[in-house]
Amino acid sequence: MTSIAILRASAVIFCAMGALTGCSLTNQPSTGTPQPSHDPQAIYNALLNTPFKSSELPAGFSSPGTTANAPDEYLQKYNVLGGVEITMKGPDAYNFINYWIYPTTEDAKRHFELHISTDNAYFASTSLAPYPAVCAEYLASAGDARYGATYCKVLVGVVEVFGVSWIQNSTRYGDADDAVQLALAGIAHLNSLLK
After folding, report:
1. Are strands 145-156 and 62-69 parallel, antiparallel or unpaired?
2. What pLDDT, in 10s, does the model give residues 14-31?
């Protein structure tokens, strides 16, 4: 199952006040999202061609690899330029960071906000300061295997950054702290390329 399936998964709120490191509830996504001043295609190229170093990952994660992640028909409706996935070894069955890059901040925000109120799911708007974020949990399957999954996605200008944790045979979803920490690492890597 690809990270694209995460966007369509049935989800339940998990980000409750104080329940996660680096996560706090707000009523609405921040309207003051910092805007990168770089060309979206240049951001995509930089993310795809700049190796994500092990030293950029949180403790317990290693061996990052970078691959292009082509948008499917669904994401193409939101004008996604492309995706970049950072795979790695981690404490969970699957851990990864995913980036979706949009041509405008309006396209990125439109897709980000859509998933706050749709997909037959309940989402919490959170803040991974200074960026708006949405965190969710759901149960997933890939073949015969069943997983508990958790993701946090963060809106950084024209980029959505996802931190993801899947735990095999879990009935309690993925690891929320891992998802938050991976999202934060993804933001730090992106910001290092925007300097």
Report:
1. unpaired
2. 332 233 334 333 333 334
